[in-house]
Structures are given as structure tokens and as C-alpha cells.
Design brief:
It is a single chain. The protein is mainly alpha-helical and 175 residues long. It folds into 2 domains: 100 residues, 3-Layer(aba) Sandwich (Rossmann fold), CATH 3.40.50.1390; 56 residues. It has a two-stranded parallel sheet with strand order 1-2. α5 runs antiparallel to α6, α5 packs across α7 and α6 packs across α7. It is elongated and about 75 Å long. It comes from Pseudomonas syringae pv. persicae. Pfam families: HTH_7 (PF02796), Resolvase (PF00239). GO terms for molecular function: DNA binding; DNA strand exchange activity. This is Stability/partitioning determinant.
Length: 175
Amino acid sequence: MKFLCIEDLQPGEVVIAEKIDRISRLPLIEAERLVDAIKAKGARLAVPGIVDLSELAEASSGVAKVVLQGVQDMLLRVALQIARDDFEDRRERQRQGIDLARSAGRYRGRKPNAKVHEQIIALKGGGCSIAETARLAGVSVSQVKRVWAQNQAKVKIGYLGEGAPKTASEYMGDY
């Protein structure tokens, strides 16, 4: 995983986050890698509301230093895990709300952007790869695949717009 902000860090700099969930909503292992990358650059992470024992640890020696660093790491790990759990809880509640609204017929999702769909079809139809089409259209690879598949399905059944055959037998006639 590449973190552009971290690449620019200089030793001695401090990364300040308003809240711990602004640092990462990644799973704990990946969030720890992010924090380790910050530390590897010689920078520090500061989050208001999370006790920072790093200055005390630097001023200490021996067992006290080891204990303070261990407690600091533990506090950070606990905070990162709580942030991740909160993120997952909110996503789950959102999914439940969407499911409830769908079952009641009140949720249909975002309306498709016809211009973007036309651009995807033109790029992909012009020979661009899926990844290249996604990059040029500014959309995800999965959206390109979905739009292209829908387009191919329409082409396959002979979709011609207004007045198009509604069934395969209507399309095929007495063939």
C-alpha cells in the first residue's frame, strides 16, 4: 500500500490528526503498518485525546522507557481498533437501513450518469482496456465492467431503442 503523505515526511516532523479515525479506517494490521511507516520516517503521530507518552519515554531510561513505549503502543493499537470497530458498525447500520428501505420500495440507489456511461462505451468500444477506460473516464474498474456488460447485453438482444422487439420471438420473427 502506498501512502503519498508519508513519502514527503521528514525526520522530526509531527503528523497531527484531529481524531484517530482520520488516520485510518483500515483493519488493525494495516493501520499499524501505516503508523510504523510514519515512525520509520522519523516522524511522530499526534492525536488529541490520546495520551502521548513518547516525550516521557524519550526522557526515561531502562525499564521505565520500555514500559512507557509499550503502554504508548498499546494505547495507539486500542484506539485504532476502536476506530475500525466504529467504522464497521456504522457501515453495518447503513447497510441495514438500505436493506430496510429497499424492502419498503423507497431506495433505488443513485441514478446512472448517462454521459459517463456513453463515455465508457465509447472508450471501451474504441479499443481501450478496462483499466485504461476506467482511468480516462474517472470511474472504477468495476463500474466499467458493469456498464460494458449492460451495453453488451442490450446489443446481444438487439436493443435498438424505442420500438425495439420486447421478446426474443418478436425479434426473430418466423425464423
